[in-house]
Design goal:
The protein has about 400 residues and is of the alpha+beta class. It contains 13 helices and eight strands. The chain has three domains: about 100 residues, Butyryl-Coa Dehydrogenase, subunit A, domain 1 (Orthogonal Bundle); about 100 residues, Butyryl-CoA Dehydrogenase, subunit A, domain 2; about 150 residues, Up-down Bundle (Butyryl-CoA Dehydrogenase, subunit A, domain 3), CATH 1.20.140. α5 packs antiparallel against α6 and α10 packs antiparallel against α11.
């Protein structure tokens, strides 16, 4: 099993110290960042270390040995991974999110998936495949692109469209398929988040039993079939809003790391063709680092605000309004934009020597650009969505 390697025994792990354990791994993750990018997937050493720290347990149900980690702690842990390597952080947040989704499947499917608390689950919400109803389930055929971390996963949540009949729109399904039943295409060759291993996976007429199918429509409306977890407020959190928190963690980690690196570099280099022998003495540097710091602080405040809102709903059990859901998506996109602007500023102020691939800041620039292009995170799209709701119009999407 891909998720079985872990240096700690189960009795040694607890949710309490998760962030500190992940922080202790930063030197290892950072040391492997260039190789992660070059091989276009997170290195085996880093994947094993993250499993050993218990990171994959954050959203696994407690009765399977998981943590059900508070969202604020998840954001902290994931941002620490991204601070060391954006690709490792993005892989971690996708696998954490897919474990949460797996916990919404029928209990019979969960018993198959969660054979250990460190199981790794990949998945996407891009329905390129087709699901043909057949006896006892569906026959799934087609490709699932952007399958982050699929090469290091035990299961994949492949989205597929099923004909609902009578001229109605097709049903959108999440189908849980063992990675051994899927083909992985070597097609992830990109400029940002290049080490996330977001290849395409292909199902060739794979039979998926009915208990390993999750209907996305009812899920977006707040319903899911797991009997064991249906009454647990933790799994009542809307997964799409959680994705906002997880991706914001990735953006914040990258931005904080770039700011810290810049703070060190300005004491070690001058500004070529000027009389400044040390960059930190130049007034322009003072303006640049201050503006970057303010953008990152603003992104932190926006993220903390919507994370607090999500956690408050876990405590009080109240329903989210459409306005709140749209606002959370907008805050996620805007926080990511602020992080990108901060890192773009830092990158442009870091000099030509920062273009070397072993210098982390150039990778952070590319990784944040890639994250901003994600269609669920995209700042412009999310601002338009929020603006529609603020203007009294329909959101124009069920993905809230």
């Amino acid at each position: 099993m891909a998720g079985s390697s872990a240096p700690h025994s189960d009795k040694d792990l607890s949710d309490k110290d998760l962030v500190e354990r992940v922080r202790e791994l930063q030197p290892l993750i950072r040391a492997h960042a260039l190789r992660t990018e070059q091989q276009r997937r997170v290195t085996g050493e880093v994947m094993a270390a993250l499993a050993g720290a218990g990171l994959h347990r954050m959203n696994v149900p407690r009765h399977y040995g998981g943590y059900q980690t508070p969202l604020r702690t998840q954001v902290e842990a994931l941002s620490e991974v991204s601070a060391a390597c954006g690709s490792a952080g993005f892989t971690a947040l996708i696998q954490a999110g897919c474990a949460f989704i797996a916990a919404l499947f029928p209990d019979e499917a969960q018993d198959e998936i969660f054979t250990g608390p460190d199981v790794r689950v990949s998945g996407t919400l891009i329905p390129n495949a087709k699901a043909l109803p057949t006896e006892g389930g569906y026959l799934v055929d087609g490709t699932s692109p952007f399958a982050t971390g699929c090469q290091d996963a035990d299961w994949h949540l492949l989205t597929a469209l099923a004909d609902s009949g009578e001229g109605r729109p097709p049903d959108l399904l999440w189908t849980a398929i063992p990675m051994t039943d899927l083909e992985v295409l070597d097609d992830w060759n990109v400029t940002g988040l290049a080490g996330s291993g977001s290849n395409s996976v292909v199902a060739h007429d794979v039979h998926v039993p009915a208990h390993r199918v999750l209907h996305v429509g009812p899920l977006l409306a707040g319903g899911f079939p797991s009997r064991r977890n249906s009454a647990d407020p933790f799994y009542g959190m809307p997964v799409l809003l959680l994705f906002c928190a997880w991706t914001a963690a990735g953006a914040l980690g990258l931005a904080r790391a770039a700011r810290a690196e810049f703070g060190e570099r300005i004491h070690q280099r001058g500004i070529t063709y000027t009389f400044y022998e040390r960059q930190h003495e130049a007034p322009v540097t003072h303006l640049q680092i201050a503006e970057a710091a303010m953008k990152i602080s603003s992104a932190e405040l926006l993220t903390a605000d919507f994370v607090t809102l999500i956690e408050s709903r876990v405590a009080d059990g109240k329903a989210y309004s459409t306005l709140e859901r749209a606002r959370i998506r907008a805050q996620c996109g805007y926080a990511t934009r602020l992080c990108k602007e901060a890192v773009d500023l830092i990158g442009s102020a870091s000099g030509a020597s920062s273009l070397h691939r072993e210098v982390p800041v150039q990778r952070a620039v590319r990784d944040l650009n890639a994250l901003s292009l994600h269609s669920f995170v995209n700042p412009a799209a999310n601002l338009e969505l929020y603006g529609r709701v603020l203007s009294g119009l329909d959101a124009g999407t069920p993905f809230l």
